[in-house]
Amino acid sequence: DPDSRTEVVLLACGSFNPITNMHLRLFELAKDYFHETGKYKVIKGIISPVGDAYKKKGLISANHRVTMAKLATKNSDWVEVDDWESCQSEWLETLKVLRYHHQKLLSADVNNSLQDAVPITKLGRKRKREPSRHEPIKKKNQSPVVKSVPQVKLLCGSDMLESFGIPNLWKLEDIAEIVEKHGLVCISRAGNNVQKFIYESDILWRHKDNIHLVEEWISNDISSTKIRRALRRGQSIRYLVPEVVRAYIEENGLYSPESEDSNSGLLLAPLQKNATDPRSSQALN
Amino acid sequence: MRSRIPVILLACGSFNPTTNMHLRLFELARDHLHQTGRYQVVEGIMSPVSDNYGKKGLVSARHRVAMARLALETSDWIRVDPWESQQDTWTETVKVLRHHYNEALRALQSKEIMRNKHPTEGSMEDSLSCQQPVLPELKLLCGADFLQTFKTPNLWKEEDIKEIVEKFGLVCISRAGSDPSQFIQESDLLSKFQHNIFLVREWIQNEISATQIRCALCRGLSVKYLIPDSVIAYIAQHRVYSEQS
Fold this sequence. Notes:
The complex is a heterodimer of chains A (285) and B (245).
Chain A: E1 6-14, H1 21-37, E2 40-49, H2 62-72, E3 79-81, H3 84-87, H4 94-115, E4 151-157, H5 158-162, H6 172-182, E5 184-189, H7 194-199, H8 202-206, E6 211-216, H9 224-232, H10 243-252, H11 257-260, H12 269-275
Parallel strand pairs in A: 1-2, 1-4, 2-3, 4-5, 5-6
Chain B: E1 5-13, H1 20-35, E2 39-48, H2 61-71, E3 78-80, H3 83-86, H4 93-117, H5 124-129, E4 137-143, H6 144-148, H7 158-168, E5 170-175, H8 181-185, H9 188-192, E6 197-202, H10 210-218, H11 229-238
Parallel strand pairs in B: 1-2, 1-4, 2-3, 4-5, 5-6
Helix pairs in contact in B: 2-11
């Protein structure tokens, strides 16, 4: 029954510095995967570029990164860019971004339900049982259509999942809430170590049903780092990023040896933040 | 000032369909040749094989040429040439090379005739154009797997391989982690002409095989961002790939 499928929103957090065809592929792969289970319906994809306060080396201004992502998704009918995270003056934990989008989804859902306040009656439906039977009818044909609560799942590659193990990068309680309350969709190359990584972590293992592993059979390793490297060397990036993104980068002269040096010597925001928090010393496994 | 040798890159293949990887091969080859300082890549030609190649799953040349054309809409230097696809029988690679080389010469000659008919006066270009026009070189663009087929028994005529590497040249793109230079060293013929075999390493892994694309399409899976949007639209509109095809 297509109406009983759980609605899912895919949220991808990251630098998108710049956005590449590989990032965009993650969404397509995840959507196909969920569709094939027959249990989920992907209704939206959200790209949430990280704010400048992340202080990653080589990170260029959020304005450009958001604009490029928007250009890249202009002709997608289900993936969009959200700049809320990038507008925050301080770096935000991924969990907070998940919570924000989950809350937003719930409010939108409530609004939609309020608009359809009148229960949907299905007129003209023939009763399956004979009227002479006195047993109560199990299926209520005249009750409002009940959908399960839509879920926001974090979409990522195996590198992000495995980054859970980097000391002080993630708070253990955040990881727990992400996999317990929201869920993870992790795209990885065939022959990866992700299953082993999950096995070796008690918290991930406990919630492995909410960690969806999708194998990418078509080898596609277009990392932003390599794109920036190619640009510094005057090499072509055509067909690795959307044409509109390539044109934007060229017109604006983005990515140079200088831009790659930005934030050099600075500590990544989460490392800075968690270093002062005693709770963060908890290990993943 | 030593001028660069103009180069035309020719890629032969099924292009069934054209993928982003096919298009990348051209970009990589051009960058590589430019960085040698000796060459100027002036044109790229995609030459889809004719239908009687007989490969399993090969859809009609009409579609493959149309899809290549759509894929190349955003390129200002690569074009698709349907000559090979229009031939009645399968054409050996060396014959395709010869055809396009002759065409390039013909184009050059007619440009020379035009220039001689209408000489510009007093322009800077005059002194330079008095020099003999540099003959272009036509090089075969391929992947490392193509190079390996040279050692398949009875697949190639020795004299054809010789003509390809001696008269034309090869630009061979290989994956990070695979190194065809050993294969070249093991062949007397290839090592003799290794100066005309350009090995380009692709460090950004992007192995989008057309076979996988067709497989995905048959299963109703998305191929967006692996092949150009215009090609996806064409495939959907004309129902190019199906279980039957």
